[in-house]
Amino acid sequence: MLSPFLPANHILTFAQSLQGGGVERAMLRLARGWLAAGHRVTLILGEAAGPLSAEIPAGVELIERDCQYVGLLAALPGMVASLAPTIIFCPGNYYSSMAAWLKIRLGRACPPIVAKVSNRLDRNDQHFPVAQGYRAWLRWHPSFVDHVVAMSPAMREEAVRMMHIAPDRVSVIANPPTRAPGAHPPGSPPLSGARFLLGVGRLSPQKRWDRLIDAMPQVADRDTRLLILGEGGERPGLESRVDALGLRRRVDLPGYAPDPQPALAGAAALVLTSDFEGVPGVLQEALALGTPVVATESSVAIRELVTSPHHGSIVPAGDPAALVAALDHWLVPGRPRPDPVPERGADSVARYLDLFDRLIFARQRA
Residues 197-248: pLDDT tens digits? Predict the structure, then answer.
């Protein structure tokens, strides 16, 4: 006789830090929803300090290890064995090595692992040897991940192709929206009265903010300013670039913003110049506010978000002239702003819980 079905009553997830990434922010929103639905949630962090620490939901069981990635990787199997969660959620590509190590160490005793694809898998920014190794790593995923979650249909197709995983092991579930529709309307933009372009994201090599800074001297409207909200290791190099181009009065890098929506609502356009992305939440936030976007084709999901030239412009990552032309287009005085596009993912929490329950039920029947 089968034992009584045990639902996903204890969800365990993990992250290295809360320094302001979209992966970690989405993880916290999901955890908040799972807690509200009556589930136990354990969050294991290498370090809890960081701009997102204020967003840790009340009720989560927080374990801070005070260690770097390798230390967290080493400690995780023992902690999972002790805590005995019913399901494990791996919040993004960056953390999939932790999922692999859990499977290696715990074997059949490892709870089901659900891994979310958070970034582009078919990378064109990698050199040949690195690209070959990365592709081999992706093909190994079906051996240690029970199920994969892609954030859009195009990302699902990419995951099936790149991971060589059975299609029935990949689901499409969007990230939950930043906030409920109509809640907390944006306040005054940080550059009130000024015409400005906006970038939002970590100051990391992936984001390629240098492309946007380099475009500013070429923009036709020389009174337009640029605001980049974010923090990270690329700050010294970006500030040096601003100084070298004589843009100190036109480019502002004020750091991380807990709530970028006032800036999003007031910007002439939201600009994303990344080499690679997943489904950029900031693009969805901008479109939900009726702000046009300019984005490099950094993910197969970009065209699923920017579905019409009325909402924004998509440019090749390595085409500076196309980027400047797109910026000039949206800076034309009197250019109509797009109609708002509601954010996706209102049912994401429930869909994850349904997936978790199905996986646990299948494991119990096996």
Answer: 999 999 999 999 999 999 999 999 999 999 999 999 999 999 999 999 999 9
Question: How far, in Å, CA of 263 to CA of 208, rounded?
Answer: 20
Q: Give this prediction's pTM.
A: 0.90
CA dihedral 324, 21, 345, 173 (to 10 degrees): 100
Which residue blocks in 186-260 are alpha helix, DSSP H? 209-215, 235-244
Coil/strand/helix, residue 86: coil
Q: How many CB atoms within 10 Å of residue 340?
A: 14
Which residue from 77, 68, 131, 137 is spatially nearest to 101, judged by alpha carbons?
A: 77
What's the chain's Rg over C-alpha atoms? 21
Tell me how crowded residue 115 is: count the other CB atoms within 10 A of its CB: 25
d(CA 312, CA 335): 12
User: At residue 342, what is the residue type?
Assistant: P
| Range list of H helices, the chain | 22-36, 69-83, 96-106, 128-140, 153-163, 209-215, 235-244, 261-266, 281-288, 302-305, 320-330, 348-365
